Inverse folding.
């Protein structure tokens, strides 16, 4: 057990990475930050719309899309992969809607059926054509974020920009921010009050499918380098943490970005310390922050609840005794009046 | 409590059959030979030979894989039925992901794949996961789906970290812990099968003994609480059984796809029947069949992961149920809808025929295609097609040479009934709901096709047997329709139905 968890050495965990392989390390961290930010921002809206698990489903079911695209195009060209995965993502939402609307099977079961079927098809394709598909089942789950800096850097007009997946993810993150900024009002209104949205002339299905398309784009581009687990977790955890701390949407969006930055920074160091999967460690850090928010949140934290309930209890006792006095008084008076009246 | 006794007799008979089935299964498990090659070690052979091997049950390892898959199919199918009707389908998903750290802990216990240690570790962590979901939903504003997603992702990430750490250990590389992610039935050992058999028997026993409690709390939690059932206790028992089911399925199906074995067979059964006990049987059967098929295909393809094939088998069953289930299937529904709209169409044509006759005060009994077309604002061709439809259903007779449509007795009765429904409803809306007379037509157009005989009689009674609609036209009474219909037509060619209706 002692060699299972290595001893914590501040120098090895926090200083060495930055002195010995700073550029590699920085790229991994930037990638983690971009993935968590994009997922976190989109995830906020999923949580508001009670669709948190649709993100989970989509991130599982892009697998067959990737496999089919790979088999057809015979290359790991990102355009084909992108189209394949996007198609699979949209297919998932359509299947879920179809099962949910056409039969009496509820939405949760429909989600479970849709994603597991597609994921199973993906795994079978990968293992049947294992020699032809350059995809690994495990890498699908963990991702290979540690290999990001090893890619040949993409260049633009002679200037080296960075690893292509980081560049792509940066563009997607920008796109996400832009989309949220441009359609802020539409997303806000349709998420909170579909009736009001309708009366304002906002078409709910258009917003819905737009959001789903954005979600698929983010999931697909994050998936290949960061793995399903990071994507699923980051769609939910930053938004959930932020919504424990605030009730205003702008604040929540800001907090989820902050949460993303903190968890990718600390997560990567956790991974160095424990020598484990980097994506996994980032999620663990994110979960730790969620727990902190859960305990210490000023409005609905556990600590606050415990103190509040003690206050409430004493308050309740006081009001109850007072009420008994009042109640007793009002009861006595009318009855005595009534008794007096006949006389 | 007298009314209780037939139920108990029925109940005990079912219990007996359950016990017999499980006893047989048990026997099979204990008698199966020990020690043999794992499926993966069997050399490449022809697919036909492989299939033959499968059906002759030569290999003990194959027997274990098959029995294990069948057992987990039964367990998952039974428990899945309850979680599907309780709308907790994704709880199974959360649980199956949450057990991963437990698996790793069980492995770390003494650094090998000891089924019991892994079972205990995984069950405990799984329960911790489900308790955390409950705690998050109870103490924060987060909704259940977010809480499930949170727990799923966080626990799974911890599990992934631990598994990668184990793999980085000097002894960890050959551990095979990563086989838990996608499942490999070939890795099922004798000990695993014994554990699965125990869990299956336990699940069946608990469901049989506490069937009523599970049933009531699943369908009407409020009533169950009011009737004094320990709903919380039952919920936790359900979670415990669910954790057991997930844990025994891990080896064969894998963490990621266990939830499908819970949800999909049960959802397919849910589409096929409305009775819980039938749903349980069906779902267990689907799970069993899917387990066997999964083991078979994985064996055919030599070392393919088992879980995805089981899941695909389940999904195929669900797809068939989705399309062709007699009541809830999409295709059957579409058929029903089509026949309903065809009926509405026919009834509208009958009504038009009636209107034509009424417009000329029921002089003459035949209606020409031209008149019908004019009444319906359609081309003569369309009118003829509709009249032909009516003839197919023996509601009218056509006489092409004289260009005439005549009611049959059935047709006349049907037409009277529709017009009657329409006018009664118009009258009801103006009298009882005080809607102006010029606004009631559209509503009556829709309702006339669905009013049943009982409702019509009640309406009539409530309207004090009025015989004029708000527009002043006579309402044909049931009496009219029947009397005319029962009269035998004269032998002349152009005699149909449609005698003058005379009121006041």
């Amino acid at each position: 057990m002692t060699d299972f968890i290595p001893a914590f050495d501040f120098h090895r965990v926090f200083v060495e990475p930055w002195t010995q392989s700073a550029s590699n390390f920085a790229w991994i961290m930037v990638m983690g930050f971009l993935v968590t930010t994009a997922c976190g921002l989109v995830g906020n809206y999923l949580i508001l719309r009670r669709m948190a698990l649709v993100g989970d489903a989509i991130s599982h079911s892009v697998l067959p899309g990737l496999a089919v695209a790979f088999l057809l195009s015979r290359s790991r060209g990102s355009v084909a992969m992108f189209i394949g995965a996007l198609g699979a993502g949209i297919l998932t939402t359509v299947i879920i809607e179809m099962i949910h609307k056409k039969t009496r099977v509820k939405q949760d079961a429909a989600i479970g059926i849709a994603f597991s079927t597609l994921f199973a098809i993906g795994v079978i394709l990968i293992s049947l054509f294992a020699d032809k598909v350059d995809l690994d089942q495990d890498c699908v789950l963990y991702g290979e974020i540690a290999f990001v800096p090893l890619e040949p850097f993409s260049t633009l007009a002679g200037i080296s920009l960075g690893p292509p997946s980081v560049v792509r993810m940066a563009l997607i993150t920008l796109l996400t921010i832009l989309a949220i900024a441009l359609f802020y009002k539409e997303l806000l209104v349709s998420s909170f009050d579909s009736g009001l949205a309708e009366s304002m002339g906002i078409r709910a299905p258009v917003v819905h499918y737009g959001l789903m398309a954005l979600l698929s784009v983010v999931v697909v581009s994050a998936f290949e380098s960061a793995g399903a687990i990071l994507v699923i977790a980051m769609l939910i955890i930053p938004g959930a943490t932020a919504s424990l701390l605030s009730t205003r949407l702008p604040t929540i969006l800001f907090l989820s970005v902050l949460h993303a930055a903190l968890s990718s920074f600390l997560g990567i160091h956790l991974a160095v310390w424990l020598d484990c999967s980097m994506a996994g460690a980032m999620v663990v850090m994110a979960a730790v922050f969620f727990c902190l928010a859960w305990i210490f949140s000023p409005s609905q934290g556990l600590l606050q609840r415990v103190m509040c309930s003690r206050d409430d209890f004493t308050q309740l006792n006081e009001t109850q005794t007072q009420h008994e006095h009042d109640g007793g008084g009002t009861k006595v008076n009318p009855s005595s009046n009534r008794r007096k009246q006949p006389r | 409590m007298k009314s209780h006794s037939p139920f108990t007799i029925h109940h005990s008979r079912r219990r007996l059959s359950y016990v017999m089935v499980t006893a047989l299964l048990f026997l099979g498990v204990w008698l199966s030979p020990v020690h043999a090659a794992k499926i993966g070690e069997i050399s490449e052979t022809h697919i036909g030979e492989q299939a033959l091997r499968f059906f002759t049950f030569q290999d003990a390892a194959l027997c274990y894989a098959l029995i294990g898959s069948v057992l987990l199919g039964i367990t998952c199918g039974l428990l899945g039925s309850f979680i599907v009707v309780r709308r907790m389908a994704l709880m199974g998903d959360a649980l199956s992901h949450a057990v991963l750290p437990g698996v790793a802990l069980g492995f770390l216990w003494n650094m090998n794949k000891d089924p019991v240690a892994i079972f205990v570790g995984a069950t405990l962590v799984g329960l911790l996961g489900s308790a955390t979901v409950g705690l998050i939903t109870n103490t924060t504003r987060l909704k259940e789906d977010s809480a499930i997603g949170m727990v799923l992702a966080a626990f799974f990430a911890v599990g992934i970290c631990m598994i990668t750490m184990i793999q980085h250990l000097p002894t960890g590389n050959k551990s095979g812990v990563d086989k838990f992610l996608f499942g490999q039935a070939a890795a099922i050992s004798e000990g695993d099968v014994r554990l699965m058999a125990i869990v299956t028997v336990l699940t069946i026993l608990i469901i049989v003994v506490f069937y009523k409690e599970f049933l009531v709390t699943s369908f009407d939690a409020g009533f169950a609480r009011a009737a004094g059932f320990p709903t919380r206790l039952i919920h936790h028992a359900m979670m415990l059984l669910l954790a057991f089911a997930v844990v025994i399925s891990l080896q064969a199906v894998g963490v990621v796809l266990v939830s499908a074995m819970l949800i999909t067979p049960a959802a397919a059964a849910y589409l096929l029947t409305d009775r819980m006990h039938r749903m349980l049987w069906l779902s267990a059967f689907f799970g069993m069949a899917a387990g066997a098929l999964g083991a078979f295909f994985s064996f055919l393809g030599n070392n393919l992961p088992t879980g995805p094939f089981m899941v695909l088998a389940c999904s195929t069953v669900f797809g068939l149920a989705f399309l062709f289930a007699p009541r809830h299937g999409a295709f059957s529904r579409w058929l029903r809808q089509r026949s309903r709209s065809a009926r509405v169409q026919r009834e509208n044509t009958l009504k038009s025929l009636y209107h034509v006759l009424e417009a000329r005060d029921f002089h003459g009994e035949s209606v020409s295609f031209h008149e019908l077309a004019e009444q319906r604002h359609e081309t003569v061709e369309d009118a003829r097609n509709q009249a032909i439809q009516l003839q197919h259903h023996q509601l009218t007779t056509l006489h092409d040479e004289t260009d005439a449509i005549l009611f049959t007795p059935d047709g006349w009765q049907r037409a009277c009934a529709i017009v009657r429904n329409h006018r009664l409803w118009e009258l009801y809306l103006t009298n009882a709901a005080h809607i102006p007379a010029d606004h009631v037509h559209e509503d009556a157009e829709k309702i006339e096709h669905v009013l049943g005989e009982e409702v019509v009689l009640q309406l009539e009674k409530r309207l004090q047997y009025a015989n004029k609609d708000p527009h002043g036209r006579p309402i044909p009474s049931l009496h009219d329709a029947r009397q005319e219909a029962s009269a035998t037509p004269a032998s002349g060619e152009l005699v149909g139905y449609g005698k003058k209706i005379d009121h006041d």
User: Anything to note?
Assistant: The radius of gyration of chain A is 26 Å. Residues 302-340 of chain A form the longest helix (39 residues). Chain A touches chain B through 64 residues (CB under 8 Å). The longest strand of chain A covers residues 159-162.
